[in-house]
Amino acid sequence: MTATILELRRVCKGFERTIAAAELSLAVGRGEFFTFLGPSGSGKSTILRMIAGLERPDSGQILIDGRDVVRVPPWRRNLGMVFQQYALFPHMTVAQNVAYGLKSRGRGRREVERRVSEMLELVGLAGMQGRNATVLSGGEQQRVALARALAAEPTMLLLDEPLSALDEKIRRGMQTELKRIQRRTGTTFLYVTHDQEEALTMSDRIVVLNHGQAVQCDAPEAIYQRPRTRFTAEFFRGCNVLDGVVASAGAGRLRVRFGGVEATVDDGRAAAPGAKIGLAIRGENLHLGMAAASCPIRLAARLDEVVYRGTNIDYRLGLADGQSVVATSTRREPGENGGAVTVGFADAAVVLLDD
Ligand code: ADP
């Protein structure tokens, strides 16, 4: 792990009716693309605003480069910010917008010009210096906002849902662009989004938030494949959450019963036989048709619904114990609505949840 650039220590922040940060502790490494992910109202923006200095925590510490900044005003924190609204100066050109922060820091004309073209080149707007900022498309305006924020070489760049106002295709393109720009500059990015795909695509690590609490903090693949809590599992599309019962336990292994079958899970935890346990299985790890036949665990299910989603097809299945799951396949599988099908999976597809 690289050196820590940001540390939150037991940060609390409450409003009249809600909690935006509950004893929140986390550390971000220098150069990381770190994402705060959670549903609307989970505290993401407030946490970012506290890091920026626009809100003050009720208690706890916020350390940037090892120094507690809770009492340091925003303009002394040397942070860049990009929001959903581009907030460009409408009466200024692209170059004037990008140069704004540099001029106010008293840099010379030559240096400012050089830095402006460097930044515009970085964000893919080379040669656009003279354009009026507001005649640009949404995607281009966001690039200008990004160039403006990065021009002053901030210690960290804070981005709050910066792509939400863009339409799907441009948003996807900008995801790749943002990641490229982050890699090229090596700047630490703190990114806020409610969009799981955006978080998975760009981040080095993601913290999942629920009512101001860090539910899980991990690399995208770990969060996606191995959610630790029911909340994280349910937050990601395509993950089935089921109730199981511990059938037997020993040597860090559990036999878990659900849907009329048992699976062995080898994650080192202990639990008493008979205990209830939550578990998660991703839809793409549940197989139907030919693929089910070669799986170590197979169970009988009823096909309740088939939903065509383009690349994937979702099969909603009723299990013997009354629970239901969705299996995802790229193929049209045999079976009719209401008919019997076999669903198969491997023991390793089963993830045990902490709550
Ligand atoms: P998110 O960014 O995850 O949508 P926010 O940080 O914006 O969440 O908000 C977290 C909670 O705090 C929400 O319930 C919101 O209504 C509340 N909140 C945010 N700012 C204020 C404020 N200035 N006054 C009162 N409540 C606020």
What does this structure look like?
The radius of gyration is 24 Å and the shape is elongated. It has nine helices and 19 strands. The strands form four sheets. It has a six-stranded mixed β-sheet, with helices on both faces. The protein starts with a strand and ends with a strand. With 355 residues, the chain is of the alpha+beta class. A hairpin with a 2-residue loop joins strand 9 (205-210) and strand 10. The structure holds adenosine-5'-diphosphate. The site of adenosine-5'-diphosphate has 12 residues, from helix 1.
Summarize the structure.
This protein is α+β, with helices and mostly antiparallel strands and about 350 residues long. The chain is built from nine helices and 19 strands.
Number of strands: 19
> Bound compounds, please?
adenosine-5'-diphosphate
Number of helical stretches of at least 4 residues = 9
Percentage of helical residues?
A: 25-40%
Distance between the termini: 29 Å
What global shape is seen? Answer: elongated
Structural class: alpha+beta
Beta-strand share of residues: 35-45%
Q: What's the pLDDT, averaged over the residues?
A: 94
Major beta sheet summary: 6 strands, mixed
Output the helix-strand order: EEEHEEEHHHEHEHEEHHEEEEHEEEEE
pLDDT below 50 for ≥5 consecutive residues: which ranges? none
**Largest sheet, spatial ordering of strands:** 6-7-8-3-9-10
Query: For the CA atoms, what is the radius of gyration?
Result: 24 Å
